Every structure is written in C-alpha cells, then in structure tokens.
Amino acid sequence: MENLKITTNIQVCQYNELVEEDKILIDKAKSMTEKSYVPYSKFHVGAALLLSNGKIVGGSNQENAAFPSGTCAERTTIYYAHSKYPESKFQKLAIAASKDGKFTARPISPCGACRQAILEYETLGGEPVKLLLYGTDCIYIVNSISDLLPLCFSEF
Ligand code: THU
After folding, report:
1. Which of 17, 100, 102, 126 has the most CB atoms at less than 10 Å from its CB?
2. Would you say 143 and 128 are in contact if contact means Cβ atoms under 8 Å apart?
3. Does pLDDT of 108 surpass 90?
4. Which of 149, 137, 82, 79 is nearest to 110 (CA)?
5. Residue 138 has pLDDT above 90, yes or no
C-alpha cells in the first residue's frame, strides 16, 4: 500500500500587497455583501468575478424560507455572469463576508457545491480561475479553483 499526498499552495498576503486589479475586485466583493438577502443567517457574502471581456460581475447570497432554495454569493455571481456573457472566460473571483457589520477576520472559502460549480467554468474556459479570498487579518490567493477540489469528479 502507498500513501497519496495532496498539497495545496495558497499565498497569504495583505491588501496593500495586491496589484490594483485585485484590489478593485476585492473592493467590489466587499461592497456586494451589502446587497445580500440574508434574513435567516445574517451572514452577508459578496462575490466579484472578472471576465475575459474585462467586465466585473458582482453577486451576493440570497436566502429563502425553504432553506435549500437559497443560493451562495458565488453561484449567484457565476450563473449570472455566464448567462449574460456566455462567450467570456472566468479569470478571477473575489469573495468577502461580513456579520454584525464586520468583515470576517479570516477569509471565507467557497462551499463544496460552489467549488464544483466554479470548476465547471474553469474547465469550460480552459484557463485557471484564480480566487481572492478576503479577510481583515489576511487575504488568501488560490491560483486555480482545482486547487480547492482535489480528486474532483470527471467522467474520462
Ligand atoms: N454562503 C455563501 O454565500 N458562500 C459561501 O461560500 C458559504 C456560505 C452563504 C450561504 C448562506 O446564505 C450563508 O452564507 C450562511 O451559510
């Protein structure tokens, strides 16, 4: 028997170390938290996606009294983006979250279902979708969504 070790490379940095484009994307994700509809969790999540056509699409989590009917900020954003600009590739996705008026100290990371959904568009575009995960203590930069979904499902 042998062990298969899987490692993930995540860069940890501060806001002022980011390039301008990444700052803009994080700012947009932070501002999108204000558009969330979260009467149940009160946990506001915002996302901002940079597309290959240069557009930035923002989205937020939208909850529902029938809990499974709600959607995370990431899926709100990516499904809207691909409906509106189906010819564009996804390049970078920034995510931020706040509760009780404060952004989270640690970055939040997409849930399993969102990872799978983002991966679908990374595969479709044939280029990595970079993640910028915001926290007030630090920012995580992940170079490809596939880094957060090792041994992902594929039919080949
Ligand atoms: N949520 C997101 O929008 N994105 C994530 O990555 C994790 C969780 C939402 C779902 C729900 O509206 C609230 O956060 C609490 O789980």
Report:
1. 17
2. yes
3. yes
4. 149
5. yes
Q: Name residue 82's amino acid.
A: H
Give strand ranges (E) for the chain.
10-13, 43-51, 56-60, 90-99, 102-103, 130-134, 139-142
CA-closest candidate to residue 47, choices 72, 23, 22: 72
Q: Give the rounded percent of residues in the chain with a pLDDT score beyond 70.
A: 99
pTM above threshold 0.90? yes
Instruction: Catalytic residue, from 34, 74, 87, 120: name it.
Output: 74
Site residues for ligand 1, CB cut-off 6 Å: 38, 41, 43, 45, 61, 63, 70, 72-74, 108, 110-111, 114
